[in-house]
Structures are given as C-alpha cells and as structure tokens.
Amino acid sequence: MDIKDFTDTSNLTFELRLQDLKQAARDGLITEQQAQALWQRWSQGQHWQATRPVDPNVPQPVVAAVATGPRFSFVNVLYYFGGLLAIGAMTLFMTLGFQQMGPTALMVLGALYLFAALKVADYFKARSLPVPAGLMATLAVFLVPLIVWGAQHLMGWWPPGGPDSLASYHTRIDWRWITLEFATLLAGVVMLWRYRLPFMVMPLALTLWYMSMDVANMLLFDHRWEWEFMRDMSLVFGIGTVAVAMWVDVRTRLSQTAEWRQDFAFWLYIFGTTMFWCGLSLNDSGSELAKLGYCALNVMLVLLGAAIGRRVFTVYGAFGVMLYLGHLSHEVFRDSFMFPFALTLLGLGLVALGVWWQRHESAIAAHLSRYVPQGLQPRA
Questions:
Q1: Distance between CA atoms of 144 and 165, rounded to whole angstroms?
Q2: Crossing angle for the helix pair 74-89 and 130-142, to the nearest 10 degrees
Q3: What are the backbone angles phi and psi of residue 358, rounded to the nearest 5°?
Q4: Within 46-200, where are the H helices?
Q5: Residue 234 burial by CB count (10 A; 0-12/13-18/19+): exposed, middle or buried?
Q6: In what order do the strands lie in the sheet with 62-65?
Q7: How far apart are the first and last CA of the chain?
Q8: What's the pTM?
C-alpha cells in the first residue's frame, strides 16, 4: 500500500491481536519478549505511530490493541445497575400479585417486553453502544422462561405437582423447570447469533447451572435433598460447560471477524469452573492419596489458567491448594509442633511467589502458552 493511500482519512486505526504478535515472533520478525512487551504497552491504552519519515501533512497510521471488554467507569456502572435492576424486576423480584394476572396476560406481557427489549437493543447497537445493547438483549433472554411458563399453563401442559409460582424458578430445584431451560437455551442461542454481544452468554451459562440441579432432581424422582448425587451432577455439568467454553474460546480467538473475536466464553468459564470445582471439593475422600491428587489437580488448574489466560482457573486452583494445606494443618499434622512454623514459612513463600509471578506473568504466560493449541493462547 502506498503512503498516498492514507490521504483519504485522518483517523486510520489498525486492529492488532495478541495472536498477530505471536505469529510475528514465530516468523522471526521479533522476539517473544518483544511481542509481550509491545502487547502490554498497547493493551494499557498506549499507541504506536509509524516512525519512518513521512510527509507531515499526511496522517500517520495508528496501531491500537483490540479492546477485550467495557472498562470500569461511572457510565458503565449506571448501565449495569439499570440493566440488572430491570432483569431482576422480571425474575428474582417478581411478586405473587404480578402473577395473579393469569397465564395469558403473563405470556402476552412477556412477549411485549421481549419485543421492546430487542428493539431498544437494536437502537443501541446501531449507535455503537454495545454495553446497553447487550444488557437489553440479555433482558430479552431472561424473559423467555416467563413466556414459556405462561404458554404451558395456558395450554394445560404444565406437569402437575410442580411450583405454582414462577418466582420459584430461581429458588427451588424441580425437574419441571427443564422445559423452560431448554427453551431459554434455544432462544438465547438464536438471539446471541443475531446480536453477537458477549454479555448475552451470562443467562445461558446460568441456565446450564440451573439445569444441572433440575436434571439431578429428575433422575432422583423428585427427591431434592440427596446432595451427593447432585454434587456429582454438578461436577459432570461443570466439565461439560468448561468443554463448551473452550470450544467457543477457540472459535472466537481464531475468527477472522472482529465481531466474533469478542470474549463469548467468559461466562461459560465462570459458571462451568464453579460447578466443576464445587462438585470436586465437596467430594470428601478418606484416602490421603486422593486428597493429594485433589491438591495436584488444583495446581494443574493454576497452571492451566496461566497457560490460556483464564484467571478463574487460577483463583479456584489456589483456593483448592489452600483447602488441602488446611487439611494437613488440622488433620494430618495437628499434633506436630513444627508444622505451624513450616506453614508460616510456606505462606510467606507463597506471598513472595505472588510478587515474583506478578513481575514475570507475561513471560510465564508466553512460555506456558507454547503447550496449548493456538486457539487457546491467552488474550490480552
């Protein structure tokens, strides 16, 4: 491209991904350390301008790091507070008096709210306001259970013996909710494909969490309190959700379209890891070898989080290691005089390790990312 091609605009910006810098390092154009340093500089909001001599009257191209999500600001706080308040009004805070309107009125009202939410989402998205657009589209997804609930009661398809209030959807485990959950997942995926806004994944991940408990309730023939089985179902659903998150992560990171390179896997990782880790941690074993294996698995989570740039794994893995050390302190070595001193030294060592890790996090992530597929290499 000739430099005269830049004269048509005064605000040229090139989109640059971390994968592009890594590919340049693999091609030998720059070193991996330079790639990490450049990305850290650009991702902090600094820009690099072309340094070769050019005509001062010609605009210079600017390279900018791709933003990974909305920044924390007063405006975004207002967006999320208002949006979540509207979502809560139609879900958690729905009163019995509201539901006395009857199934037909609920279904019609829910459909009108959904239509209005999507129209407002269209309005915001057309004006390049992704945060409020995502909140309105997410509200539309949360309205699907209300519409399906009203339709099932209107048609007489609601199974007998179930909850008589939709507000119980978020507080009571019952297999009858599964129809609402399947409908929410289906409608949510369709709307996500239409709007392509990452926050819309949150209600889908939440629905998968609900479904893990309701499926367990169904398999237990409506006995809700056999928590061991529900714990195991949480573990299985967690593994499945994390697997889906990784698949989504690979597809989005390798996408050639900027709209699909957004972080659609974030909420799937959050809920999937929570289900998996809680199910794993509640699985009490009398074997010390099994508990050591639990600690080793959590160490692997810490390393996996660093390798693919997902700190949710690192946080849960660190909690798991701390639980194992607490077990050693209170059970295995509770009569040992030296163990508290050793544990104190270990704690101070972990603090020092944290300081060292923070200083070298980029280099560690770059090194560990060599052992994972390209599609799972860390984002910014």
A1: 15
A2: 10
A3: -60, -40
A4: 74-89, 96-99, 103-126, 130-142, 144-155, 178-195
A5: buried
A6: 13-16, 62-65, 48-49
A7: 28
A8: 0.75
HSE-up (13 A, CA, CB side) for residue 27: 7
Q: Of how many residues is the chain composed?
A: 380
Grouping H, G, I as helix, E, B as strand and the rest as coil, residue 63 is strand
In 3D, which of 204, 200, 9 has the Cα closest to residue 118? 200
Two tokens at 24? 């340049």
DSSP 21: H
> CA 364, CA 372: separation in Å to the nearest integer?
13
CA distance 9 to 225: 65
Q: Which structure tokens are listed for 14? A: 């090139």
- β-strand 62-65 against 13-16: which pairing, if any? parallel
pLDDT per position as a tens digit, 77-133 = 788 888 888 888 777 666 555 666 777 888 888 899 999 999 999 999 998 888 899
What letter represents residue 126's amino acid? Answer: A
User: Average pLDDT over the chain, rounded to whole?
Assistant: 79
User: What is the full DSSP assignment across 146-170?
Assistant: HHHHHHHHHHT-SPTTS-S-GGGGG
User: For strand 13-16 and strand 48-49, is the pairing parallel, antiparallel, or unpaired?
Assistant: unpaired
Q: Please name the amino acid found at residue 331.
A: E
Helices 339-368 and 288-308: crossing angle, nearest 10°?
A: 40
Token pair, residue 22, equals 């890594």
Q: Please state, in angstroms and rounded to a whole number, the distance separating the CA atoms of residues 179 and 211.
A: 10
Q: At a CB cut-off of 8 Å and minimum separation 6, what does 252 contact?
A: 260, 261, 262, 263, 264, 265
